[in-house]
Structure formats: C-alpha cells, structure tokens
Design a protein that fits this description.
Helix content: 10-25%
Distance between the termini: 23 Å
Radius of gyration: 12 Å
Largest sheet: 3 strands, mixed
Length: about 70
Amino acid sequence: TINQHSEVFLPASLILTHLDECDAPGGALGEAYRRGLSLSYCTNGPAIPEDIREADAAWLASRVLGRSSE
C-alpha cells in the first residue's frame, strides 16, 4: 500500500503486484491517481518474469471492470 512512509523515497511511479489475488484493484489505482503517480508495471501471477507486464490502460480497465480473462 501507499502510505506517508513511502513518500520519503519520492517515488515517480508504481508497480502494482499480486493483481491476480486482488478482487478490486480500483482502490490502488485511485490512490495512485490521487498522489499523481503513474504506473510502470503490473504483475498478474507468481511467475517471474513471465507475469510482469508494462502497465496498459486497456488491460487495467478490464481488471477494474472485472472483465479480464487473465
């Protein structure tokens, strides 16, 4: 999660992990937006590097809307 302690590092972007285990990623996306942070990468499974992907607006929207088949 994003909190006041992470701000000491001055992040420019985020990596969202464990999206395959998340029921509703909208909260994390909303918090990133609120703090003005872009998303660089997402992970959607336990296999590294196979499950790491660049953040993609269409794919993320499908996850938020519950329409992703991945």
